[in-house]
Design brief:
With 141 residues, the chain is α+β, with helices and mostly antiparallel strands. The chain has one domain. It contains 4 helices and 7 strands, in the order βββαββββααα. The strands form 2 sheets. Strands 3-4-5-6-7 form a 5-stranded antiparallel beta sheet. A two-stranded antiparallel sheet has the order 1-2. Strand 5 and strand 6 form a beta hairpin. Helix 2 packs antiparallel against helix 3 and helix 3 runs antiparallel to helix 4. 22% of the residues are buried.
Amino acid sequence: MSMVDNNMTTGHAPVASLLTERPPDEHLISEFPRQALPPRANTSRPSSAAHASIHQQYEVVYDDAHGRPLLAFTDGQWWDMTSQSPRPVTVRFALRRDPSWAGAVVQTVCLWMRSHPHDERSFDLATELALAVGELARQQD
């Protein structure tokens, strides 16, 4: 199933997804098999080959408005792609990194947890998500 499909399967029949938030049109989403990640030499816009390589190393990559990788997700882990070398980050960090991606971050986490219900990381992600959403809701008061 593609991470950007608007339909989800319940095990019986396809149903419309409640997670309909889509990333901004100027951003790109890629879904490819993951591989080991080499360190990035700089944070300027990568060449086409380097950009494609980064997108192939993660399940999902969200680019900033300039086409540079911003956040990546693989194996239940978010990665900050803006530093010299990618570093693991929490769901909270991913939600706050770029508010225009917040809905897509939540949708990615939910889809991954649904696909990996018995993975220990699913419980960790659910906890991170609940704490981050609670914090954001309290800030709105």
